[in-house]
Amino acid sequence: MRIAVLTSGGDAPGMNAAVRAVTRGALAKGWEVFGVRNGYAGLLADELAQLAARDVGGIVQQGGTTLGSARCPEFAEAAGRAQAIRHLKKRNIEALVVVGGNGSQSGSASLARDGFPVVGVPSTIDNDLYGNDVSIGCDTAINITLEAIDRLRTTASSHHRAFAVETMGRNCGYIALMAGIAGGAEVIALPESEIQPAELAERLRAAYQRGKTHALAVIAEGAKCGVHELMEYYGAHRKSIGFDLRVTRLGHVVRGGIPSAADRVLATRLGAAAVDTLAKGRHGVLVGLIKGDTVVTPLEEIAGKMRPADASLLELARTMAI
Ligand code: F6P
Fold it and tell me: Given ligand 1 and candidates 126, 129, 142, 172, which is best to mutate, with the most ligand atoms within 8 Å of its CB?
């Protein structure tokens, strides 16, 4: 069999391990593999090159994606996808593995609807895809956020200052929730749960009243009460609040890490599982790990949906912050 692999959307630590696993898993079956440069944009531009085992050597430990990635609005158009399929078919490529997040797997679903065999591998720091428990890259992103929280806590305690840390995740609060629980945050703001700036500020103040030397808020990128709203509120009520507040926005730093062992293993398992899925004649699906087992879910069922973080865990975080 002849297959191609691409990485798409926001890069995530572990994407390279997934490409390596797809390539070597396929080569081990005697198949041929092509790597596509820069995601769907590279498919449209016909940027494909054959991959040998050595071509994916020394990348398992690298963050980002050596194949390159891009956001590609043209792929949402039928004409764009038809061009992509032409470029695949002229090389007799029979199937495509797409390593990427929510938007990328919507692209996979469209390609499958157009009749081209495709298997999706979930890779996004946001962890907002159905059909898997945790997506490739998320564990590393949580650990980077956690390291920032731990470091900020040092200054927070030394200066009796409050800190608000904003982490990425688009409209999903998973990274903020996990890093907030692991980092012992006093308050966590998520897109999945309402909190007003006044309550957030009050919970930071209450932490000092309980005798804490620091107060830390972890704020998800998509939270309605974001760092902007908090700063605005703080500016207007500075005197009555009675403590200093500093804000750190982690931004793309969160995506830029060396993949953790968990992400490398997950990516290796899912990349190989994508090849096994094709070998069984299945496609039009996303491969994911659910409760430790490899599960395939039709792309149609997951495309365009966003899996929210479990906001019920906020209660646990609050209890631990007493
Ligand atoms: O989807 C991954 C992600 O890092 C989100 O957390 C974030 O909202 C978005 O991508 C940022 O996109 P870009 O890198 O295109 O600015």
Answer: 126
